[in-house]
Structure formats: C-alpha cells, structure tokens
Design brief:
The structure is a homodimer. Chain A is mainly α and about 300 residues long. Chain A has one domain (about 5-300): Orthogonal Bundle (Farnesyl Diphosphate Synthase), CATH 1.10.600.10. In chain A, about 70% of the residues lie in helices and about 0% in strands. Chain A has helices at about 5-20, 30-40, 45-60, 70-85, 100-105, 105-125, 135-150, 155-165, 175-200, 205-235, 235-240, 245-250, 255-260, 260-285, 290-300; strands at about 95, 100. Chain A has a two-stranded antiparallel ribbon with strand order 1-2. The longest helix of chain A has 28 residues, at about 205-235. Chain A is globular, with a radius of gyration of 18 Å. Chains A and B meet through α2, α6, α7 and α8 of A and α2, α6, α7 and α8 of B.
Chain lengths: ~300, ~300
C-alpha cells in the first residue's frame, strides 16, 4: 500500500468515527451542533488521530480498537483552531478555503464551539474504549492529552506567541531563537507529541518505551511547525486554503522570518532523517510512522 | 458546628487544594498563570467543590481523600464565568466587585485563561485521587463532569441563552417557559447536579443511589438559578459584587422577568422544602447537604 493509500484509509476511519461521535446538526442546541460540524468537517488532514492510530499499531494493537478514542485529539485540535482564529487572537477570516467559524456564524458561537469541542475531546478520551479493563488507560489518556493541551502546553504556546508578536502587551521577553523554539514546542509540538504518545498509552505501553514514542512525536511536532512556516512563506492561497504570508505581515517569529528559507529547509531535512531512524527502531524497519515522517516534511498544504 | 462554620471550613480546604494545584503566578507562561490566579482567587464561594465534598461525606467517605479532585469543578466553573463575561457574550466588566479578566488583562488572554482552566479542570479529575485503585473512578469522574459541562449541558445552555436574548441571530424558538426551564437546567443546573453526583461517583456509588444524589443535585441547581435571578432583580451592586439589574436591561428570560418576583420566591421555597426532604433521605437525618440546601435558597450574594 502506498503512503497516500494508507493515509486515505486511516483518514476515512477517523472521519467515520467522528461522524459516529458528534451529535446531528439538528440536535439541541442546533446552532452549536451545526457550527461544531462546520468546524470539524472542513477537510482537515486528521494528522493527530492518524498519528495515534499508527503509533497504536506500532505498539502492537489493532487501530480499530481505538477508533473513537483517538478522535479526542482531532476535536481538541479543531477547538484550538477556532479559538486562535477569533478576532481577539489571530483574527483569521479564512481557514481551509472557507470562512472561519466566527465569520460563518458569529463570535459568541465561535467561543462556545471551541469550548464544546475541547470538553468533548477530553470526554471522548474518558469514555473510549469502553469496558472496565480499559479504565486505567482512559484516565492516563485524559491526563496525557490535557497536560499537552493546557497552560503548560498548547495554550501556553499560544499565549507566548501573542506576547511575542505584540498582540498582547507583556513584559516577557528573552532571546528570540529560544523564544521561537519554546513557542513552537508548545503551540503545536505538545499535542503532536501527545498524539504519538497516546497511541502507546492506549496500547498499555509505559516507561522507556513510551519515552521513545514521545521522542519521535516531539521531533515530528517540530517538523510540522517548520513545514508550516515554510508553507506560509512559499505556498499560494490556493494550495494552502488560507491566507499565506500572514506570518511575515504580522511580524511573527517563525523559522523562516528568523533564519531565512534555506536554513529552515535544512532544519526540516535534518529532522526528517532523525525521525526516519527513530521510526525504524520503533517499527523494526520501514513502517507507517516512517512514511508519515516523510509525509509531514514534504506536504504542500 | 453552625452552617457558616461548616462552609468556612470546607471552603478553606478547597482554597488550600486550589493553591496546591495551580502553578505559581510567575511560572511560564507568566501572563497566563497570573490571569488564571486572578480569575480563580476572586472570593468565590466554592459552592461546587463544597457540594461534592459534602456528597462524598454523605456517601460515607472522608472529604480530604478527594480534596484535589473536587477542585476540577471550580476550575471549570471559573472558566465558564471568564468566557461568559467576554465582550462577544455577556460583555460584563465587573465580577465579584473586580474588573473581569478581559478588562484587567485583555480579551485574548481571557479566551486563553478560559481554555486553560477548562483543560486543567478535567486534567485534575483525571489525575486525582492518585493510585491505581482510583483509576476507574477517575475515568468516570471525567466523563460525568465533561458531559455536564459540554454542548449537551452548560455550553448548550449558554448557547440557547444567547439565542433567547437575541445576542446571536437564530431561528430557534418555542414556548418561553419551556425555554427558560431548559436554559436554567443546562446553563447552571447541569454542573451543580454533576457536583453532587461527583461526590457519589468518587465514593464508588452507582446505579439507583447515584440517581438519588443526582435528583438532589438537579433541584439544587434549579434553586441556585432561581435565587440568582431574584438576587439580580433585588440586590444592590455592593451586596452582589457585580452589576445588578442586567438581566432585565438585556431582556433576558429569567424566573423574575417571566413570572414576577413573588412567584419566583414561591418556587424557591418549594424547591427548598423538596431538597431538605431528599437530603434527609441521603444523610439519614439533618446533615450538611440539608444545611446547604437552606444556604443556597437564602444566600444574599
């Protein structure tokens, strides 16, 4: 099976599980459920749940056992996009080629959509897989993902990003390169790392082996952000499905604005090599995690 | 021990646990942690975690065993206040006598404070009490509280409240009395009911006995909202610590604007009687839950 076929199959499984998990658009409260579905079914690549499925498989499990659980990651990722797009934060009007939630609906609804998605994401992890035998893993899964998503993780990264761009007034500062690394590591890195780790945790893996999954996930998270920065600087709006060049216009710290395009590309190639080696260790040869490492570093949108 | 002494002791235990759980105000990301503490340590009455502690005691446990876990409720309650106060939602500038988070800090920070508190609230439930023997109860606790806080609960109630007041444009409608009941039951009722249920779930109670705790909690939640509506219509800003009379000015559906003050007060008295009877069943006589039922119905702020 080619990488494209593998990813298409995994994405389809994630989409089917999301469809099962989310209330119909006309269920009470209808405006909220309609907007939740608008946000979730927007053509996302489902990178995080797919990562968790592949990690679960690498740890010896059958991904269909955790089909629902891994969707918690996608709901949490989607909440973060909806809130980050708000006028008070990044003020984005276009996302994946469509109006953002606060534009298509309104700002109050967008705040509540994010709140509902975050809550649902952690609830999905607390409830799936069902059965008493899974209870301890479910509790570990919620703790792992919540830590990655919260103030010491993703939300903290977004806070420092807003401070670094001067969008909020702050006395915080420090070396720009360290600051960039810290923003990236938290804003997108933590949840991507946790996605890989979640697959291991759901498979009952702990200790050193869990740490190896985390190490792979951490590099993947950084690669994802460097690739994003490069795409923002080089892709067209059509390829990207959102407004490109916003980072430079907003004075954002990114790998490209700080180091230039050539060094950013070299960094990405280095990360790709490291990840492929790590994945080979975890999978005992060329497997889906290695293929995904290539994919993240070479994606065009 | 008098009710006031009991509540003061319980609140002090909750405050001490919150202090242990939250990062220091100067920990990274400092702006966020400072604002989180500003929101959490604002003189709140800690009704939800105190309720959970009293229910845990009524179910035969020693509240100190769940000191950290029940704080998850307070973090989630606080997140909902911070987001509800945002300019795009209720646009409140005063809360408990102090500027709201988006006024004291800024709007972007307030969005992130809410996100961080919601995430932390569910994480606290996923991690506490520690120990393998508690894992199944932790997973149940997260599922219970997330369901009460999410789209089918608190967030859904807030969505319909915004629709009912015309703050967001919506085709939704229906009988105003049914609508008011539905808004109340969800917006504040669900989390209060879940607070009582959480005490039972953490004590290992399920089935019919859990349902009796839930029935008490449901009435308490309704009483809390009716009392809130009465206070908004009758208290002074000084007593209330926030702007009074806002409900009527905003054209909100409340027990007072819909039924008038006398019928609202009669409803509250009826709920108090029912709750005291239920509490006596659960506690085998006059106990803390019965005292709390009196307290909620008679509070002045």
């Amino acid at each position: 099976m080619s990488l494209d076929e593998l990813l298409a199959r995994e994405r389809a499984a994630v989409d089917a599980a999301l469809e099962r998990l989310l209330p119909p658009a006309d269920a009470w409260p209808a405006r909220l459920n309609e907007a939740v579905r608008y946000a979730v079914f927007a053509g996302g690549k489902r990178v995080r749940p797919v990562l968790a499925r592949l990690a679960y498989a690498a740890a010896g499990g059958e991904p269909s056992e955790v089909a629902e659980a891994v969707c918690g990651l996608e709901l949490i990722h989607t909440y973060s996009l909806v809130h980050d797009d708000l006028p008070a934060l990044d003020d984005d009007v276009l996302r994946r080629g469509r109006p953002t939630v606060h534009v298509a609906f309104d700002e109050a609804t967008a705040v509540l959509v994010g709140d509902a998605l975050l809550t649902a994401g952690l609830e999905v992890l607390a409830r799936n897989p069902e059965g008493d035998g899974w209870a301890a893993r479910r509790a570990r899964a919620v703790a792992l993902v919540a830590a990655a998503a919260g103030a010491a993780g993703m939300v903290g990264g977004q806070m420092e990003d807003l401070e670094a761009t001067g969008q909020v007034v702050s006395a915080a500062g420090g070396d720009p390169e360290e600051r960039l690394e810290r923003i990236h590591r938290h804003k997108t890195g933590c949840l991507l790392r946790a996605s890989v780790e979640l697959g291991a945790v759901l498979a009952g893996v702990g200790g050193d082996e869990q740490a190896r999954f985390a190490a792979f996930g951490e590099r993947l998270g950084l690669a994802f952000q460097v690739a994003d920065d490069i795409l923002d600087a080089t892709a067209t709006a059509d390829e990207l499905g959102k407004s490109p060049g916003k980072d430079e216009a907003a004075g954002k710290l990114t790998y490209v604005t700080l180091y230039g395009l050539d060094r950013a590309r070299a960094k990405l190639a280095e990360l790709e090599t490291e990840m492929v080696a790590l994945a080979a260790e975890l999978e005992g040869g060329e497997g889906p995690l290695g293929l995904l490492a290539h994919y993240v570093c070479r994606r065009r949108s």
